[in-house]
Known about the structure:
Chain B: One of its GO terms (cellular component) is cytosol. The structure holds two protein chains of two kinds. By secondary structure, chain A is α/β, with parallel strands linked by helices. Chain A is built from 22 helices and 21 strands. Chain A is 37% helix and 16% strand. Chain A has a six-stranded parallel β-sheet, sandwiched between helices. In chain A, a hairpin with an 8-residue loop joins strand 20 (553-554) and strand 21. Helix content of chain B is 28%, strand content 42%. Chain B is elongated. The relative contact order of chain B is 0.21. The complex binds thiamine diphosphate. Thiamine diphosphate is lined by residues 392-396, 419-421, 445-448, 471, 473, 475-479 of chain A.
Amino acid sequence: MVLTGAEIVIRCLQEEKVEYVFGYPGGAVLYIYDALFQQEAVRHVLVRHEQAAVHAADGYARSTEKVGVALVTSGPGATNAVTGIATAFCDSIPMVIISGQVPTAAIGQDAFQEVDTVGITRPCVKHNFLVKDVRDIAATIKKAFYLAKTGRPGPVLVDIPKDVSMHKCEFEYPKEISMRSYNPVVKGHSGQIKKAVQLLLEAKRPMIYTGGGVVLANAAEQLTKLTRLLGFPITNTLMGLGGYPASDRQYLGMPGMHGTYEANMSMHYSDVLLAVGARFDDRVIGLPSHFAEEPRKIIHIDIDPSSISKRVKVDVPIVGDVKEVLEEMIRQLESGEARPNPEAVAAWWKQVEEWRGRNCMAYKNSDEIIKPQFVVQKLWEVTGGEAIVTSDVGQHQMWAAQYYRFDKPRRWLNSGGLGTMGVGMPYAMGAKLANPDMPVACITGEASIQMNIQELSTCKQFRLPIKICNLNNRYLGMVRQWQQLFHGQRYSESYMDSLPDFAKLAEAYGHVGIRVDKPCDVEGAIREAFTTHKNDLVFLDFQIDQTENVYPMVQGGKGLTEMILSAEDL
Amino acid sequence: MRHVISLLIENESGALSRVSGLFSARGYNIESLTVAPTEDASMSRMTIVTSGSDDIIEQITKQLNKLIEVVKVVDISEAAHIERELMLVKIRATGKDREEIKRTADIFRARIIDVTDASYVVELTGNQSKLDAFIGAIDPALILETVRSGVCGIGRGDRVLKL
Ligand SMILES: Cc1ncc(C[n+]2csc(CCOP(=O)(O)OP(=O)(O)O)c2C)c(N)n1
């Protein structure tokens, strides 16, 4: 069948079973939008800013096992998309971004709305393509989806000049794709796995530390099974929350800068550390030299060889798909008689429980003023822990991660790697479209939410009844916290003045807005949002304690065990 | 430590900038980089001379392997290998200097490939130190221009970098 390039693009998306494309039209993509208009299988979500299109596609991908798709025009459309692309790249999210480009003959002529999109995005994509011939579109899009979701996932951009989208050729979607330069490892080395199992069986102070890789590989079930089989303590990073049920006894909370005392101490003093789909990030292990002071054997499972022994020397590297490797470990354990030494593990648990006894997550609640931790706890209670929760970046993100207990994967969506303020609402949009029957809440701050506030309009158009929980402290709270602790309380530009009345603003967009000033009204307001206003977008504007800080805290450049547990430690 | 990394990469536009971009973005050194198509025109061969600790070199090879268009990577300096570089030098050659330069060129097995009444162009191949030595042997005041290709490398004997 002879089709135009634009029609081919849409046919390819249909072949890939794409439900939603998040995008924004413009000159260079007019043919593609025309082709989109003339079919119904692929639905388009018109955002109000291209950054949000990419974030929403990213949120869609995070909350499912699917590839998110965004469509933007050339020039400013593409540059607006860059933050979204970089955000997805840092967290290894599978996405395909299609951008329009000026006509082939105009490339390099400083044409209207021309930028070197492939050049600008090169460092923040898994791969990108400029399609110069209509006959290459189908194979390129096939490759883009394949690259996005295999190996270590990531965003892939396909740049299509306007004339290429207008030219015609015979359409056939390739069934198979093989690339001689790209063959990601799937199965782990069985000898290495055997070594790892042996180490785990001999461990006296074992610890399991897992990251986003477990969620991305859909390996939560395998992780849970292995962890229970071994009976070891476990921690999930910010990106890995939900990889293991947070309400389980073996779970010690999150590690790292704002991790729990017990998780950090157990990481540090373990003699065998099993790292799964995690990358020893600076926010997780603190100062590497301090981390290296305690001798321990490290087993590291990761799909990406370059993540292994990058920041921390690893004793047993296992390159492979996390799910496959965990399954193999379970098989080896179950087929043998050997089990971890019960006395040693019991003694270790005694120590771990002592650390847990410090109760580092306790906070002083108040009857007068709303504490942010209390809001998150109430949200958890009201939703029965069953909501998809997105967040922006700042203190509220940490409180959300600390106090909403995620028992399942793909329920917690946040920008862990790039730390992009403004992702919260678009993530919630993508997640709600992908999971229409699940409650979706966005925990945000009054600064972050304003970075993509225009999307309230998109939510109205597409009837997305997400619940926005604004932890409004009238400060760039995380910035203020650092200034208070490390910059002599000089609050340089961290005060948010001239805030809008968020409840009224939400109403202006046609939504429901509720302002909450008193602790006693918190639960009622949340209930109202999820019951009376089940089908509405509700903007809950909680006026919280302005000076509350996030604890525990490991200062940048400090060791993992050098924690400030509360304001009293200052 | 100095390392010579050889790689095969798809001969696509932009492939070179992916490699050079990787080095600049991650702060790795590039002493020289040469690239040209192989006998199979769909693939290019690149030789990169770099330096760094063992950990950094390990990361460099892993990161290069991660680039989608890179087909194969080897650190050829890990074992016996040959390095060659081509240099062209334009030298002011008048009066008694003409004979002197000619003699020096002969000693280095260089060839004079262009002659005018005032200058020579000398062509020389060898490893880097040989090229450096030749430059050192010529009076700097006489050197008008030099151009070096950067290092090309290949493993000795059975060590073959091929698809
Ligand atoms: C796009 C972007 N710009 C700047 C920052 C730096 N930053 C990190 S947290 C933060 C303050 C966020 O304030 P708010 O959204 O109100 O959340 P709070 O910390 O008060 O909970 C800032 C400015 C960032 N992460 N992202």
